[in-house]
Design brief:
The chain is mostly helical. It has helices spanning 3-23, 27-51, 56-86. The chain is 78% helix and 0% strand.
Length: 99
């Protein structure tokens, strides 16, 4: 497959993720959309790394996946703690973290 097919697929996935973050109000859907955006960028890194015959892009993907896993752990912990105290999760009403 040509490189452009991978980059177009990556752009489509990234656009879907951006729309999910901007439109949806459920924090779990927002986290899934952020993960979709990160994976779209990872797809373009791997495709370009393969095209350029370099392993730099693939090594950077491992770094991005590690940061994404840490982000999910912290984000889900925050969502669970907010849900335990308020019994409702709505992004528009989340002002609990303000000082």
């Amino acid at each position: 497959m040509p490189l452009s097919a991978y980059l177009i697929m990556s752009a489509v996935l990234f656009t879907i993720g951006v729309c999910g973050v901007l439109i949806r109000r459920n924090p779990l859907i927002i986290f899934m959309s952020i993960e979709l955006m990160l994976n779209a960028v990872n797809l373009s890194f791997v495709a370009l790394s393969s095209f350029l015959d370099s392993a730099d892009g693939q090594m950077f993907v491992f770094l991005v996946l590690t940061v994404a896993a840490a982000e999910v752990v912290v984000g889900l912990a925050l969502i669970v703690s907010i849900f335990r105290t308020r019994r409702a999760i709505d992004v528009d009403d989340m002002n609990v973290l303000r000082g």
